[in-house]
Design a protein that fits this description.
The protein has 198 residues and is mainly alpha-helical. The chain has one domain. It contains 6 helices and no strands. Helix 1 packs antiparallel against helix 2, helix 3 runs parallel beside helix 4 and helix 5 packs antiparallel against helix 6. The longest helix is centred in the first third of the chain and has 29 residues. The radius of gyration is 17 Å and the shape is globular.
């Protein structure tokens, strides 16, 4: 039996909203600095991440309210988020390493039933996204943005360890909520700082 409460489920929406705000700010700030292809990857990736988080939170809410145990919503979280981080990471790397003209970038993720591919995609994507933004912050001499992105990256990567714990227990869910909210707040603040220095 899962130990989800309505309050816990509602709190699960908080990092989704925070990341959504940061994603919109980042997209608006980088729109004129990216090729259409790189921007499409960034938009698709961030939308995937938002949808993944929203579906997981919705799953917890439906379960806590005893409406249903809609496992599909929960099961989609990991693959959607992994693909989202990979696409967003590739977009930032493309922006930093290629001349940003009209060249289109295209990525078609393979269908795969194992979870290790998603672990690799999420880790690689997160490191590319946050690391690429750190490079941009270093170029613009923003130590604060770099520090915030480092904290955000540590929080994000530590979620991998936490997700291997018993997520049916309320204890691990609350720890994950706290780390996720802290990480997303740091990402939002870093995004606001980057927007100001571009």
């Amino acid at each position: 039996m899962k130990e989800y409460t309505v309050f816990m489920a509602i709190m699960d929406f908080v990092p989704v909203v925070i990341f959504g705000i940061a994603a919109i700010i980042l997209q608006r700030a980088l729109y004129t600095r990216m090729s259409k292809g790189a921007f499409a990857l960034l938009a698709a990736g961030t939308i995937d991440i938002i949808l993944a988080g929203a579906m997981k939170a919705l799953y917890k809410l439906l379960y806590a309210l005893k409406v249903c145990d809609f496992e599909v919503l929960s099961n989609l979280f990991f693959p959607l988020q992994a693909i989202g981080f990979l696409l967003a990471g590739l977009a930032i790397v493309a922006m930093l390493t290629h001349k940003q003209g009209e060249t289109a970038y295209s990525v078609a993720p393979m269908a795969f039933s194992g979870t290790m591919i998603f672990v690799l995609m999420m880790t690689l994507g997160a490191v590319m996204l946050e690391g690429g933004l750190m490079v941009l912050a270093v170029r613009k001499k923003s130590t604060l943005a770099v520090l915030l992105l480092l904290i955000s990256t540590v929080c994000l990567l530590s979620m991998g360890y936490i997700s291997s714990r018993d997520f049916n227990a309320a204890y691990w869910n609350w720890i994950a909520e706290g780390i996720n909210i802290a990480g997303q707040l740091c990402f939002l603040l870093a995004t606001l700082k980057i927007k100001d220095i571009l």
